[in-house]
Design a protein that fits this description.
Chain lengths: 226, 179
Amino acid sequence: MADPGQLELIHAEIDGELNAQQRAELARHLLADPDVRAVREDLRRLCTALDALEQIEPPDDLRLNILAALPKTYRPRRAFPARFWRYAAVIAVMLVGGAVLVETLRGPETAPRDVAGTMAAAHAPAILDTVRLGNGPVSGRVTLYRDGAALGLEFELVTSAPVDVLVASDGHTLRVNGLGRKDKSAAPRTTVALSGVAMGEQEVDLTFLMGGRPVGSATLRATGPR
Amino acid sequence: MKEEDDRTLVRRCRDGDRAAFEQLVLRYQKAVFNAAVRLLRDPEDARDVAQTTFLKAFEHLADYDPSFKFYSWIYRIAVNQALNTLASRRPVGEMSGEEADEAPGPDQRVEGEQMGREIEEALMEIKPELRTVIVLRHFMHLSYHDMADVLELPEKTVKSRLYSARQLLRDHLLQHGAL
């Protein structure tokens, strides 16, 4: 019985695909083994018979039927060519691969950590003066600060009723309405920028109004950071 | 030379020349019909397959890449169409190579035309993918390379299928005393 290697040589010989070396190798097998000769003879007869099978003439009306069934005019129905999909697939694989590579190089995402202590702002305001208020209809604290090139006030007021504050400094006047809260434990912080007030050694006068009437006053001095 | 002619005809078809398509039908209808007959063994089904093959080719001429052989492209359409038709039929027993029929006596040996009929019988008993390579090689006389193009398979796979198909046909013919 011919082995697979010998069979492959026989088939290749029938198909005219043998090179000189393979032809010599097959000749050695044929000389040495009568089974190989028998198989070769069978396959050659089979292939000769296959090649000799008659071609059948197509029906006479096949061509006419085909032509009759064609659309009246040729309208190309162009799909994306196979090459397009191959390129698209390659690009998609490259994108995904790139993303995976970047993520791999970056390593695992670091878990957020709790921050202990106080985080300083990039431009922490500098406190210039603070005044504490007490024992009247208006209590709490007012702070004058410098934030960059501007001055500002921060109010933490506890009042029995909403209070308005008149702010006067360097020839400018500003009115801030509706400050204060009754709850001492949660005095709201309100910041007000003093637009137009020049930086310098000036005073900032505050007048507290309740119901339109003055109920207190305070002065802060911009003498430098504390 | 013929390939250049095919490409010229295809270009004319794309330009709306129906006569050019008729030339392609004349050129390939016999090969397509015969391939379908060998794969299906039913002339009516083969006629339908051939007709559908050319209609599909006409509709999709814009998809044909002229850098490939036109006949590889249209044979591929025909083979796929025939295999689809086969798949829609009821499954029939296929020869696995291990089934042994009754051994024939000497008086059952056949020659010539009878061998041809035995081959046709045997062809219908092997798997369609094996039958396809026999049809492409022995009835359409394609090279390994062209067969690989038609089937969109590596040449190595095509050869392996062809050798297996021949072995099964040989076994069948030996069992029926036709070799």
